[in-house]
């Protein structure tokens, strides 16, 4: 459900950058979403189609780049991708995991139509 | 038609985070320590606030912001417990955002407070993604919810400062593997403070209120 608020924010960012770039239409929006951001692509797309109507980004294609969670052990330095919620270090067994990737949540770039 | 790529690299949560930082500066200017309480419906968010008020009320000046989809049930309960409270009805929204909290602040006597609780909407997923300007993030997980909660909702356990394990008085009646649960939680969040409590028997509350009182003194 919070995809509604998130999508509003995406549209605000995209339209602002499109106007700054002197574009009247946005063809594609590249989003980077870490797995820890708990955002569902389909829900964003659903709200986007509805909320973007009548704005420069109406009809734009959403391209999601998902970033897997990457952990580093604060004790032994091992790095790994967790398969489930057990984040104890597979090398030394300690509970010292630090998230190095997977929290990303940003608009990376837009593709605007040349007029 | 040809297209041109325009770099953006702008955080989607930036608008919320900017407002959250404004909230934070208002809290700091008034010397109020703010605690954002997140949990599923029924975990004991309101009960934790009420029992904390009962125990700290003579030493610490407290208030609450109550977030719910609808009704003033929780605000009424908390006011009856003796502290000022403001209700935010999200009208279906699954979380509080920084803007809603900012709009509620003029209705609170911030200059006369030491500690402000923000009781978020009952939900283990969405509230975690929205920073409100708080100093301390608290999750509550209660025994009847089961020891597998960290498997299902790792994000909330990984992104809070404190975990309150509520309803420990029910441990004798339920199959809850505390060691397995704590192992998972500490794996997700090595720095987390953990307080097992019961709002019914009062077990564990001394440790929680002592810790909280220290934070409020800041």
- CATH homologous superfamily grouping of chain B: P-loop containing nucleotide triphosphate hydrolases
Regions with little confidence, pLDDT below 50 for 5+ residues of chain B: none
The total count of helices of chain A amounts to 2
Largest sheet of chain A: 3 strands, mixed
Classify the secondary structure makeup of chain B into a structural class. alpha/beta
Apparent shape of chain A: elongated
How many domains is the backbone of chain B divided into? 1
Overall radius of gyration of chain B? 18 Å
The main pleated sheet of chain B reads as: 7 strands, parallel
CATH architecture of chain B: 3-Layer(aba) Sandwich
Q: Count the strands of chain B?
A: 8
Series of secondary-structure elements of chain B, N-terminal to C-terminal? EHEHEHEHEEHHEHEH
Biggest β-sheet: strands ordered side by side in the sheet of chain B: 4-3-5-2-6-7-8
* Element-level helix/strand string of chain A: HEHEEEEE
Helix-residue proportion of chain B: 25-40%
Number of helices of chain B: 8
What is the average per-residue confidence, as pLDDT of chain A, rounded to a whole number?
A: 93
Radius of gyration of chain A: 18 Å
| Helix/strand/pairing category of chain A | alpha+beta
Distance between the termini of chain B: 59 Å
**Any idea of the CATH class of one domain in chain A?**
Alpha Beta
Topology:
The complex is a heterodimer of chains A (115) and B (218).
Chain A: H1 3-20, E1 26-34, H2 41-51, E2 61-67, E3 70-73, E4 79-80, E5 97-101, E6 105-113
Chain B: E1 3-11, H1 14-29, E2 33-38, H2 45-56, E3 62-68, H3 73-80, E4 85-89, H4 98-104, E5 115-119, E6 136-142, H5 149-152, H6 154-158, E7 162-166, H7 178-188, E8 193-196, H8 205-217
Parallel strand pairs in B: 2-5, 2-6, 3-4, 3-5, 6-7, 7-8
Helix pairs in contact in B: 1-4
